[in-house]
Amino acid sequence: MQPVIKKIEALALSISVQSGIGIIETISEKDGTKKAIFKITAKTPLMTKDGHQIGASAIPVKGRLIAFVDSSIPLPMQAPPQTEPLLVIFDQYDKKGEVAMGVFNEMLFSEQLNLKLHVKDSTEIVDLQGKRVEKEGLYRKVLIVLYEVTTRSRPTQTNPTKIIVTNVLAE
After folding, report:
1. Which pLDDT belongs to residue 71?
2. pLDDT mean over 101-106
3. What would the pLDDT profile of 118-130 be if each residue is shown by its tens digit?
4. Secondary structure of the chain in the HEC alphabet?
5. How high does pLDDT run on average in the chain?
6. What is the rounded CA–CA span in Å between residue 153 and residue 10?
7. Which of 19, 28, 73, 117 has the fewest CB atoms lying closer than 10 Å?
8. How far apart (Å, rounded) are the C-alpha atoms in residues 22 and 73?
């Protein structure tokens, strides 16, 4: 089954480690209510908006986070919900650009995001370890797409600056 990826934006309230798992408790930026608790394992990518990998200790309390979760995975019935995100982005205030995460077809279009990618020679395409990946390796995989501007057309289109290929496959 194809993952249904949901984007959650929040502020880090606290960051701790329990039994070798990083715990990031978050609050809503709008009203300060508890939003979610993210469980961070060694497999969870943590990065900045420009695609650089970081450690959990680099995320400041009250730092803005963008987490991507697979909403097709059931959550425990507790408040606030606890989940293991597919990706956590530390949204630095001085960094421009956007981050999207989704599955793209052979035309590099994501139905879920309504986003079409135009990959140029200057687009950096790597896996989570930083190894170069060919454009042909992008189809039916969950991609992290970093970009700065989009068209206002439908579907929205962009020339990504960086694409990170995850090890999550779409069926």
Report:
1. 85
2. 92
3. 999 999 999 888 8
4. CCCCEEEEEEEEEEEEEECCEEEEEEECCCCCCEEEEEEECCCCCEEECCCCECCHHHCCCCCEEEEEEECCCCCCCCCCCEECCCEEEECCCCCCCEEEEEECCCCCEECCCCEEECCCCCCEEEECCCCECCHHHHCCEEEEEEECCCCCCCCEEECCCEEEEEEEECC
5. 87
6. 29
7. 19
8. 20
Alpha carbon distance 28, 130 (integer Å): 32
Instruction: Return the pLDDT at 110.
Output: 93
Contact 148, 100 (CB under 8 A): no
The two tokens of residue 146 are 């970093």
Beta bridge partners of 10: 65
pLDDT in tens, 52-79: 888 877 888 888 999 999 888 887 778 7
Distance of alpha carbon 58 from alpha carbon 92, whole angstroms: 11
Q: Find the angle CA(14)-CA(17)-CA(22) to the nearest 5 degrees.
A: 80
Contacts of 82 (CB under 8 A, 6+ apart): 36, 37, 38, 39, 75, 76
- What number of other Cβ atoms are within 10 A of residue 45's Cβ? 18
Residue 100's φ and ψ, nearest 5 degrees, are -130, 155
Q: Compute the distance between CA of residue 41 and CA of residue 98 in angstroms, rounded to an integer.
A: 24
